[in-house]
Amino acid sequence: MTSNQPASAYFLVDDQARPRKATLSVTVDNEVGALARVVALFSGRGYNIESLTVAETDHQKHTSRITIVTSGTNEVITQIMSQIGRLVPVHRVVDLAVEKPGVEREMALIKVAGEGNKRAEALRLSEVFRARVIDITHTSFIFELTGTPEKIDAFVDLMIPLGMVEYSRTGVVAIGRGAEAQ
Amino acid sequence: MALEQGGQMTGAQIVVRALLEQGVRHIFGYPGGAVLPIYDALFNQDQIEHVLVRHEQGAAHAAEGYARSTGKAGVLLVTSGPGATNAVTGLTDALMDSIPLVCITGQVPTHLIGSDAFQECDTVGITRACTKHNFLVKDVNDLARVIHDAFYIATTGRPGPVVVDIPKDVQFRLGEYAEVSNILHKTYRPQTEPDPVRIEQAIELIAGAKRPVFYTGGGVINSGPRATELLRELVRLTGFPITSTLMGLGAYPASDRQWLGMLGMHGTYEANLAMNRCDVMINIGARFDDRVTGRLDAFSPASKKIHVDIDPSSINKNVRVDVPVLGDCATVLEALLEAWKARGERPDVAAQTTWWAQIDAWRARQSLAYQKGEDAIKPQYAIERLYQLTRNRDTYITTEVGQHQMWAAQHYHFDEPNRWMTSGGLGTMGYGIPAAVGVQVAHPKSLVIDIAGEASVQMTMQEISTAVQYRLPIKIFILNNEYMGMVRQWQQLLHGGRYAHSYSEALPDFVKLAEAYGAKGIRARTPAELDAAIQQMLDYDGPVIFDCVVEKLENCYPMIPSGAAHDEMILPDAVDAVGVSEAGKMLV
Asked: Interface of chain A against chain B, CB under 8 Å?
């Protein structure tokens, strides 16, 4: 007699469906508080934000594109999308992981300090990863690296033992493949 | 309008003119520093009547009562800071129950925003989570458009509260008025027309149903009188049984044979078992709330579910459904009826006969029965008598929250929509008196009764003063058992009878309290004197506080304990069998 529904509205566990990643591209009117509405929805309803990027993409119409990486079962993702969809300033919501497969990129700035062999090794690896050196002193580099989140993770892992001091990353931006707009 | 000054007008005048253009005739409010220009503009006209409440929460609930009983948006006007924060409970209540409100709040002048000025608060930040949408208007030339948008957003799609926050300098500044335009909103476009494919799928299921049930909710009432008419037609045409949520009472007449009574935690045995055993569930404008579903993994396990809702986020939120139909209830019902008639469908009579025989057997269980008291008034009896003595009048009922609310839902029977105003989703104690004020303002000639509990009623008791000021003859019918009855009932059933802080110590003398406010106080203590006392209340032309002293320890049954399934109801004569799981105790 049991279905695969949670035991109660309060016990959203034991979901047999596997969670997946979703990259949501949300077009909103660039008005005061629009981002806050989207973000508050995630915290208020207990959804997780793995990364978030936002900037105005149409300066004439004043619309922004928000890219949110989140995870959940298909049902949770659908629920998130319909919750975002009913916010008044939202034009549209697209899932670029499944609904309209897209490409994703992220940028990171990575500061590595060191001398001697470690410094040479960091520079050599940065060439392999096609990172650019954008600041240099006798004891440090700042690398600029663009790629998938996995590529950035991999580079950061390599830099840690070579003297990485700190790094900063943008979060994912994504866009649908093909000739059409999303 | 005489307020114009050379083609331009002040922001405050724009507010008043926009309200007038929206057809607003009553607003509920409380003045303060940051809304004085708007009050000044109100002072100079006589088309909008302002009702002065005693607390901004009261303004919000009054506007809710007004909205719920008329189908129009309720409007409230409050000042910045505490004015806005006091309104938050009412706004949240309206959001949960999908009540259209427009709340205008004053704000400190734009150049002081962010400076922690006197009576400043981040109103749009605070109300973001408890409104359908909100606005901060910084340019006076946007003001008229924003107010029109606020009404449009509040009243269309799934209705809800909208806040318009207006800094004081914007209220003073001169600007252009903009009339309501026909231009489509840039982004907000609720879907009201159903997908024909879904209608076909739904009719397919309905036509093949052996054990069907209609499960309807507040959405039918929000959709308007047309939805109610169409619902009645469809239900009668199919001959199917119908139950409804707390918010949906009145959409289908309670006096009809096909009516099963309310469902859910304190619903009838027949309604809940019909939901549990049905093979096709037709949900129209309800949202599978946890009070209704009980334990989700045992919720109506054998049924195919049709869900009609105007809000896409309601679909598959709590319960997975087979046929989601997005759209306005009236439009969808119309499409269903058309399709049903076009296909020449007939219900399966043999299956219906068997199903109704089963339902009648459940009905025979008489789950709402109670033992009548000799000396003390049973609360159910009080409501039954109130119903009998008012049923032939033009009556509106509001409630507070708790046992009395559930008894009212069980024992007061509604044959028409918009007659029942209660706080369902948020469960706001203190809703009833201000809501009654709002209803009475909208329907000055009608009988408006707040069925209350002695604990809830004290949360917004000050609004009796509003009723006295405006000669609103509301009747506050308090079932006084000296306990927060529902809290006490849960403590008895779930916490070993340890009644922690649920006794209403130091109660006021409600009769004297009524008199202190300039209202009438009436008390009844025994069943023998009850009818005459109720009659006295009904005959009195003015506000009344009725102190109905009832049996103290009566419990509200039937009851589905938290975490239990529909077929695990506690019936009044089987209370010893109460078993609540550890997981169930965690729930509210």
From this structure: 1-3, 5-11, 29, 32-33, 36-37, 40, 44, 75, 78-79, 82-83, 85-91
